[in-house]
Each structure stands twice: as C-alpha cells, then as structure tokens.
Amino acid sequence: MTGRLERIRRLDRVGLATWPALEEAVHDGWVLRAAAGVTMRSNSASPLETPRGSLADAIDAAESWYRSRGLPPAFRLTPAAPPDLEPRLARRGYVPKPAVDVMVRPIGRAANGGGVRLEAAPSETWFTTLMAVRFPGGTSAEVVRRMLASASGPITYASISNASCIESMGMGAVHDEHIAVYVMHTDPARRRRGMGAHILDALLAWGRAEGAGAAFLQVQSENPGGLAFYRRAGFRTVYRYWYRIGR
Fold this sequence. Notes:
This protein is of the alpha+beta class. Helices cover 33% and strands 29% of the residues. The longest helix is centred in the N-terminal third of the chain and has 17 residues.
C-alpha cells in the first residue's frame, strides 16, 4: 500500500507542476493553490500528506486561506489523503463533485506522423480556440494566459490546422520524467479522422525527446468516450481524485 500511495503522490505532484496556479502555499504538507477561480485544479487544496498537527487545524487553515482570497474552500481528494478528512469535510457541509481518472502509460513508440505543428508558445489562434472550447462564458483570458506562462519546465502546444481554423489541438508539459497531456480537443465536425491520435502521438514523441518515459493525463470519470479513447491508446487508470467544495 505504501508503494501505491507514494506513486499517487508522485503523479499528483506532476499534475500540480504541469497545470500551474497563480499562487501556491504549503501548510503542514498540504498544497494550497489559487488562480482567481479558473479551474478547480488550480483553486483547491491538495492534502498530499497527513498533517503533523491536528486535522481540524489543517482544515481551518485551508479554509481561512481560501476565504481570504474570496474563493470557496475546496479540497482535491485522492486515496493518499488522510482517511478521516472526507468524513470531516462532509460534516462541515462540503459537497462532493464528480471524480477524475488519472491515467498513465509508458511512452514506448510514438512519432509525429500526422502533420502536427508543435510550438513553444501558444499562437493567438491556438489560445482563442482554447478559450472557446474550454473556458466559455466570462473566464478571464488574462488569468489563463498568466497560468500558461507560469508553467515550469518544457512545454509545447500542438495543433492540426487548415486555412481557417484549428481542427485538433493539445498541450504537453514535462516534469519528473512524465509528459502531462492537457486540453485535447478536436472540432466535432472533424472527428473520427484520427486527428486526436496524431496530436497525442506527436506530444508523446516530443515528451520522449525531452526526457519523459511515461505519459500522464486526467479524464472525467463520467466521460466514457474520453476514457475509451485513451484506453485504446494504451493508458490505464492508476487512481481517481474528486473534490469536496465548501460554501
């Protein structure tokens, strides 16, 4: 069990490093992150360790940290979280949110054979497409730009385009010998043409060239189509995480 929990913590840290927040603090082994409310991953506490002090004090400190920033307190829970944490949050009125599968595969063989363009910085077209498909309705583009710019380590932005639009896209970031794959999207009118697979292969090949031996991604557990796509690509679920959101 200890080996599994250590693997979960390692993968969790890969996720934290490759999908950044604008502000981060560590309190008694828990990572507290904020980014003006943009994405739950960047605006939740990750209890990676059992606190040295009392569990109640650690919860209180996290709640105070988020409320001082005008954000609802939120916890991202994994099997490595203290076992008594979720029951305590439930008693405080925290509401559960749907789970996310964390999936991993060895990179193995992968090549950029589908005309995928890789760029070290997002083009304006890539960024505009991201905002349209992942952040509709009122999300601050400036906050998203700052989040992407604050990522540490190698990062690439992948796309397949025609003369008028981006047809398929993705993003990869390398940390601790893993490439984390994010924001995979193919225009609905252009699906079932293998574009998503080409984007994924190009990202994995790039990650291998940057020193990664494994690939990491996260998929909503209630997204059967996405889970099936990544399973066909060789990914397997290592663990799930979910959120508890306070008022």
